[in-house]
Amino acid sequence: MHEKERHRIILSAVQEKPVVTVQEMVELTDSSEATIRRDIAALHVQKRLRRVRGGAEAISPPQFIGLAGRPFSVNETLNAAQKRAIAREAVNLCTDGEPIIINGGTTTFQMVHFLTGRRMPIFTNSFPIAEHLLKHSKNTVMLSGGTIYREQNIILSPFDNDVTRNFYARRMFMGAQGLGPLGLMEGDPLLIQAEQKLIDQADELVVLVDSSKFRMRSSLILCGLSRIATVITDDGIEDREAKMLETAGVALIVARRQSSEKEESSLQA
User: Fold this and answer.
1) Tens of pLDDT along 180-192?
2) What are phi and psi of 166, to 5 degrees?
3) What does the alpha-carbon distance between residue 62 and residue 17 come to, in Å, rounded to a whole number?
4) Does residue 11 surpass a pLDDT of 50?
5) What CA–CA distance (Å, rounded) separates 42 from 36?
6) pLDDT band at 268, cuts 50/70/90?
7) Residue 150: its pLDDT value, please?
8) Is the pTM for the entire model greater than 0.85?
9) What share of the chain is helix, strand, coil (3-state, %, to 5)?
10) Which of 72, 143, 222, 262 could form a disulfide with 153 if both were Cys (CB 3.0 to 4.6 A apart)?
11) Neighbours of 56 (CB within 10 A)
């Protein structure tokens, strides 16, 4: 990742929470600790943030605390071709007239391109997903209520009496920060709380993750593997990871990229 992009992510992170640790920045940027410390030092000299012990804080502390994790704009550029292939397979599971929930995320967002010719009731907590479907499809779209988190382009509510409880779905489609033997993992307690409510409204949970997510971990578990009906991923999945899903009784769909998507991936690399 280029220095300019790392600086943008770091500055965005310190505006989202009071203090961001060096380790959190390492995970957000996939960079080394030494690189992050140099970036913090440079941004401190430029008076764009304030260096503190073990991390950094904003010059003007944020008035509104955001969610942990990379911004949507950063995540959507990572493994883009794989995400599009995964999303295509997800939409292949859908039937016109069948209600579905699409949780906000950069992989689930790619589903909108393949839903343009469908007619389905769709519930989502994502502004980008809702906006694209309203402009480019005849699907019936319902948005959740709550607080808008700009960096992740998602709407979340901690309250039980929101519209979520009034929508039934045949399937819910969602991504995750990580996927391992203990189940589906996320990086923020509010995400866990809001997504558990959505999961309760669906018969089946379909997880869309590129293969890198099998090697990522978080301290927060959203649900166990037993709650997941299907995992859709790319051909980078390792045999032991596929075996883990098989043992847990989770169906596995491996998305194969089309030639145009392979060319897109090689250009990004």
Assistant:
1) 999 999 877 878 8
2) -100, 5
3) 7
4) yes
5) 10
6) very low
7) 64
8) no
9) 40, 25, 35
10) 72
11) 26
Query: b vs e for 232-244, b when ≥16 Cβ sit within 10 Å of the residue's Cβ?
Result: bbbeebeeebbeb
- The Cα–Cα gap between 207 and 107 comes to 10
Sign of CA dihedral 163, 169, 174, 179: positive
Which residues are within 8 A (CB) of 192 and not within 5 positions of it... i.e. 6 or more apart? 186, 220, 222
Q: What is the largest CA-CA distance in the chain?
A: 57
Residue 67, both tokens: 């969610």
pLDDT over 80 at 174, yes or no: yes
Residue type, 202: A
Angle separating helix axes 33-45 and 3-16, nearest 10 degrees: 80
- What is the C-alpha separation between 150 and 134, in angstroms, rounded? 20
Burial of 201 (0-12, 13-18, 19+ CB in 10 A): middle
Number of residues that this document lists for the chain: 269
> In the chain, where does DSSP find H-type helix?
3-16, 22-29, 33-45, 72-75, 80-92, 106-109, 127-136, 189-200, 239-247, 259-268
* DSSP three-state, residue 113: helix
Sign, CA dihedral 54-56-62-66, equals: negative
Burial (CB count <10 Å: 0-12, 13-18, 19+), residue 60: exposed
Partners of residue 220 on adjacent β-strands:
186
Count CB neighbours of 147 within 10 A. Answer: 13
List residues bridging with 44 in a β-sheet.
none
- DSSP-derived 3-state class of residue 231: strand
The encoded tokens of residue 207 equal: 């997880």
* Nearest partner of 89 among 253, 258, 262, judged by Cα: 253
Label residue 213 exposed, middle or buried (CB < 10 Å: 0-12, 13-18, 19+). Answer: buried
CA distance 86 to 106: 11
Alpha-carbon 159 to chain mean position? 22
